[in-house]
Every structure is written in structure tokens, then in C-alpha cells.
């Protein structure tokens, strides 16, 4: 890639839209004429960085990044989203959908333009902004979009003919694989009426027949999913999320992480610490991934393709992970409601390189060279202290700019937009600190978990020259169970010790939150014990179903009673 192209970044704010040259100059680009209007709603770089587009509230303009030559201008004043196809043949724009005054269907709001001729190739109605953009294979031989329980496929940018359809009842999301042909498709179908949700992998265009799927993974506890292909298109990571954690253990709902390979293998990724999954990201080498998870302070762990832990970074104030483009550096960071601490790791040798702090950051991105990092503080998330910094990964700040008082930065310096569902770059996650829970049963479940905070990094691989043989998968699983039981015993002892040092109830001391809490009424204690026993049996049934076992009708009926049992347990424990 041309170094001039890889250096340019765009900045959008109340001062207008302008380009900044990357290292070593960090000056405003003299070739790109600043757009001083305050109505710039959207910007986008092409995948290769050669084209740049923006909407200024009047038109959508497309320029060549190197020469700043205006290539195309489209009369689209209301466009709020832009995207280039992978090989720069098509520009896609989206504006908010609105119905006609008489209540009839509105005009198409998703437009696809031929960038060579400026001609509109096709217009669609796309009501929701979520997943608004069609997805292309990297060579543009295939383009797909989700329409009414079907995924429609177009070939060679001919949008007048649907070349293929993948029909699955209630299919709600899909992701195309990156890289060369053949293209693979991951599709998600949410569960209903006691049936589990599932993700299936297909190879285009083999969608027909009962055995056409490359792989299938079913699971419960999924109101929505995020599907992430690795770069080599050999496996998908699925983060399944619920809006509400029925156990009351988390304010954020509940998340589970699943692994699905195109060879048919699948697994639930066992995360050693309870709590939310904040972030999951593939290493560009496609043979390992990093997960950030657990109640604060969160753990971060690198796993291999067998879903075995390779390196555990211990605990820390973090909720995001970012691999460099070559995959040789990993940044663990704590943004949102955390203080902006970053840990920069050499992932080949698992050595800590630096620990810079980017306070109040709302945006993070690697530069394409794999050496430089951009962070920014932007409105409307934060309306004070807006500005951006450019760093070297060793922790040095090479350039810093704060916008003048009274002005705002809306979008930090960026090379191109990324769509999270395809596993590309993204900004920091939303607020990730653990809230004060409103119900007593939640506090009972959470507070003991927060007592053990500091865990150092740990290499999970046998060291070179070591005579120890690597543990088998079964032995490793048993070892984890043993460690979990040991930790639970230590936690119970800590709770008992804490209880002995607490003031008496007559001094209005808070009730002990450990597992030794009893009601004093043997009948209530017996009911609580029975309810927990039933809920444990339901959890085991759900795990069996997620592993592919066909459950009997009475077993499915037991699962459907989970909500009522949880509510009954909560009512009993609230009275303690």
C-alpha cells in the first residue's frame, strides 16, 4: 500500500471535516480542502484506503485520497451511512426510512451506485439501521442481504436478479466469510417456544438438502448473537447474549462464548471467571483468539483452536482487546467507565511492552502499519476534553491535539469504518463497570466474586525444555474443576471469617452475603435447597441440549419452568 495512503486519517467535528497526515508530520493535509460545514453526518474510507467519502448535509462526495481529486458527487442530503464495496466498484448509502403522508410505504432508502459511471444500480427499502449494509465477498463475486426470513444473494453486482436464496424460518442475522472463494456463510436463528437458538455454517451456494450445512451449534440463553469469522474462514466465534440474567448475577444480562469450525467441530469456550463477556477478538493469524470477561477486575485469556487456554493475562481494569494488523501485538484496554489504562503485549513471547493511559477515550484504532495507535475523546459521549492522540505502541505519545473550548470532536481520526458483526475494528464498548444491584439476591451472588481481585499473568503452555507433557483435554477439564472447587472453599472460608468480624445485628450491620446465610426456619431452608437442586438439574439439561442431545418432552417442560423457579427462589431469599 502507498505510504501516503496509509498515513492519512480523517477528523470530523464542529470545526468541520479535515484530513491529518500520519507520522512523522502529523500536520493537516494540504491537498484535501477542509469542509468547514457543521452538518457532516457520515464519513467512510474504502477498504484499500484509496477512496474517501463524506456527506455534508447537501451532497455525498467521493475523492481520491492521494490527489484529493473529486471523483463523484451524489445529491443525497439526508444520507447518514456510507460504505464502499471491497474492490471500490459500488458505493452504498442509507438514510432514515419514512412512510408517505397517507401512511403508504415510503420511498426506497438504501441506494447502490456504480462508482465508475455514477449510475444508481438498485434501490431497496431498509427500515432498520442495524445491519443496514449489504455484505460482499472480498472479490465482489457475491453480495447478500437479509430480507424477511431469507438471505438473498446477488452475483457480480447484478442486483436485478436474485441468484440464490437461503431460507430458514426466522433467520435474523448472517455473516459472510472473508478471503478467497469459496465463500462460507454463518447464519443465526433465535430459539422460540422452548427450542434452542442455533448458528449454522454453509458453503455458497450449497444450501439445499438436510445435510448441506458444514456445521451446526445449538444453545439456549440467546436473545442476540455476535458472529466473528477468523481471517482464514476456518472457524466462527459466537457470543450469545441475553438481555436479562435470570440468576440475578449480572446487571448486563448473560453471555456465553461458542466455537464452530467449518469441519463440523464445535465447543462451548469454558471461561474460568463468572461475569460478562466484554470483548472477543481473533488474532489475524487465525489460530488463536482473546476473550475479556468476568466481573471487574476482568480476566483476559488467549485460547487456541481447541479452545484450550494458551496464556492468561490475569485480572485488571479492562473491557476491550485489540490485535495489531500483523497480529504480533495485543492491546488490553479499559475504556467507557474505566480510566483508560492500556496494556501492550508482545504475543509471540507474551512479554508486557508498555502500560500507557488514555484517559476518557471513546475511540481506539490501530494504524495499518501495526506500529501506531490512535485514541480519541469524542462527543456526544463526552463533551469536554475532546481531542485525539497518536501513540507508538511502546507507550510514547507522538502527537496530541485538543479541540478549542466550545468546539466538539464527533469522530476521531480513522482510516475506514468497520462492522462489528464481521469481526473488524471497532471503538471501545459501552459502559462496563459493575453497577450497584437493586435486589438483595443479586448482591448475595456478586459480592463474594468481587473479593478476589488480583491474579497475575500465567503461561498455560508447557515451557520449551520442560519435561512435562501437555495435559489432555479431559485432564485439563478435571484440573479446572479441582481449581474451581478449591477457590469456592477458600471463598467460603473468607466469608465465614468476614462474618465473625462483622458488628452484631443490633448495630444495624449488613447481613453476611456468603453462601452460609440461612433463614432460621428449617422449612424455608429446605425449600431453598430443593429449588437450587431443580435449577441445577435444568442447567444440566440445557447444557445437554446445547451439546446436541435430543431432549424428551418432560425434560423440555422442566426447562420451561426455570423462570418460575428462579422467581420463587428470589422471593424466598429476599426474605432472609
In short:
The protein has 576 residues and is α+β, with helices and mostly antiparallel strands. The protein has six helices and 36 strands.
Structure description:
By secondary structure, this protein is an alpha+beta fold. Among the domains are: 134-268, Methylamine Dehydrogenase, Chain H (7 Propeller); 270-463, Lipocalin, CATH 2.40.128; 516-576. Helix 4 (522-546) crosses helix 5 (553-560) and helix 4 (522-546) packs antiparallel against helix 6 (562-574). It starts with a helix and ends with a helix. Residues 1-6, 416-452, 465-469 and 498-516 have low confidence and may be disordered.
Observed structural traits:
576 residues; alpha+beta; Methylamine Dehydrogenase, Chain H; Lipocalin; five-stranded antiparallel beta sheet; 6 helices; 36 strands; disordered N terminus
Helicity level, as a percent range?
10-25%
Q: Outline the low-pLDDT stretches.
A: 1-6, 416-452, 465-469, 498-516
Give the N-terminus to C-terminus distance in angstroms: 66 Å
The largest sheet has its strands arranged as 23-24-25-26-36
DSSP summary: helix tally: 6
Count the strands?
36
CATH class of the domain at 270-463: Mainly Beta
Mean pLDDT: 79
User: Which of globular, elongated, flat, extended, rod-shaped describes the shape?
Assistant: globular
The CATH architecture of the domain at 270-463 would be Beta Barrel
Question: What is the fold-level CATH name, i.e. the topology of the domain at 270-463?
Answer: Lipocalin
Q: Radius of gyration from the CA trace?
A: 26 Å
Amino acid at each position: 500500500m502507498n505510504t501516503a495512503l496509509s498515513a492519512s486519517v480523517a477528523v470530523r467535528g464542529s470545526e468541520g471535516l479535515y484530513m491529518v497526515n500520519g507520522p512523522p508530520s502529523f500536520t493537516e493535509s494540504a491537498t484535501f480542502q477542509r469542509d468547514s460545514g457543521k452538518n457532516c453526518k457520515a464519513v467512510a474510507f474504502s477498504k484499500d484506503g484509496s477512496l474517501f467519502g463524506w456527506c455534508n448535509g447537501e451532497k455525498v462526495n467521493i475523492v481520491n485520497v492521494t490527489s484529493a481529486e473529486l471523483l463523484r458527487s451524489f445529491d443525497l442530503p439526508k444520507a447518514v451511512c456510507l460504505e464502499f464495496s471491497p474492490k471500490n466498484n459500488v458505493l452504498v448509502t442509507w438514510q432514515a426510512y419514512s412512510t408517505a403522508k397517507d401512511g403508504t410505504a415510503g420511498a426506497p432508502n438504501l441506494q447502490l451506485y456504480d462508482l465508475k459511471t455514477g449510475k444508481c444500480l438498485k434501490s431497496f427499502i431498509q427500515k432498520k439501521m442495524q445491519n443496514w449494509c449489504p455484505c460482499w465477498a472480498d472479490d465482489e463475486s457475491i453480495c447478500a442481504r437479509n430480507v424477511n426470513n431469507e438471505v438473498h444473494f446477488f452475483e457480480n453486482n447484478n442486483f436485478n436478479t436474485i441468484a440464490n436464496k437461503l431460507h430458514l424460518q426466522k433467520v435474523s442475522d448472517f455473516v459472510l466469510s472473508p478471503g478467497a472463494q469459496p465463500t462460507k456463510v454463518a447464519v443465526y436463528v433465535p430459539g422460540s417456544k422452548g427450542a434452542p437458538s442455533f448458528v449454522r455454517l454453509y458453503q455458497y451456494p450449497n444450501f439445499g438438502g438436510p445435510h448441506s450445512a458444514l456445521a451446526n451449534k445449538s444453545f439456549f440463553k440467546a436473545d442476540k448473537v455476535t458472529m466473528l469469522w477468523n481471517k482464514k474462514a476456518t472457524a466462527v466465534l459466537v457470543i450469545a447474549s441475553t438481555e436479562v440474567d435470570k440468576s440475578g448475577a449480572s446487571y448486563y444480562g448473560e453471555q456465553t462464548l461458542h466455537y464452530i469450525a467449518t469441519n463440523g467441530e464445535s465447543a462451548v469456550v469454558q471461561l474460568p471467571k463468572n461475569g460478562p463477556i466484554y470483548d472477543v477478538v481473533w488474532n489475524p493469524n487465525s489460530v488463536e483468539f482473546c476473550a475479556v470477561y468476568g466481573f471487574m477486575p476482568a480476566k483476559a485469556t488467549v485460547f487456541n483452536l481447541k479452545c484450550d487456554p494458551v496464556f492468561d493475562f490475569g485480572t485488571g481494569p479492562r473491557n476491550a482487546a485489540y490485535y495489531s494488523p500483523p497480529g504480533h501485538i495485543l492491546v488490553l484496554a479499559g475504556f467507557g467507565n474505566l480510566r483508560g489504562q492500556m496494556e501492550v503485549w508482545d504475543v509471540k513471547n507474551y512479554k508486557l511492552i508498555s502500560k500507557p493511559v488514555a484517559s476518557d477515550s471513546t475511540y481506539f484504532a490501530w494504524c495499518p502499519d501495526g506500529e501506531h495507535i490512535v485514541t480519541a475523546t469524542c462527543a456526544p459521549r463526552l463533551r469536554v476534553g475532546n481531542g485525539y492522540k497518536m501513540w507508538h505502541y511502546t507507550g510514547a505519545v507522538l502527537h496530541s491535539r485538543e479541540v478549542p473550548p466550545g468546539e466538539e470532536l464527533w469522530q476521531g481520526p480513522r482510516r475506514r469504518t468497520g462492522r462489528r458483526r464481521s469481526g473488524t475494528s471497532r471503538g471501545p464498548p459501552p459502559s462496563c463497570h459493575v453497577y450497584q444491584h437493586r435486589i438483595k439476591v443479586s448482591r448475595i451472588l456478586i459480592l463474594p466474586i468481587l473479593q478476589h481481585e488480583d491474579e497475575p499473568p500465567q503461561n498455560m503452555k508447557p515451557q520449551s525444555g520442560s519435561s512435562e507433557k501437555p495435559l489432555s483435554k479431559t485432564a485439563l477439564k478435571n484440573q479446572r474443576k479441582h481449581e474451581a472447587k478449591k477457590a469456592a472453599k477458600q471463598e467460603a472460608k473468607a466469608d465465614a471469617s468476614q462474618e465473625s468480624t462483622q458488628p452484631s445485628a443490633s448495630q444495624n450491620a449488613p447481613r453476611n452475603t456468603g453462601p452460609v446465610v440461612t433463614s432460621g426456619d428449617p422449612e424455608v431452608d429446605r425449600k431453598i435447597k430443593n429449588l437450587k437442586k431443580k435449577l441445577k438439574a435444568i442447567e444440566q439439561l440445557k447444557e445437554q441440549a446445547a451439546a446436541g442431545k435430543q431432549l424428551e418432552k418432560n425434560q423440555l417442560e422442566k426447562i420451561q419452568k426455570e423462570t418460575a423457579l428462579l422467581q420463587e427462589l428470589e422471593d424466598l431469599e429476599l426474605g432472609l
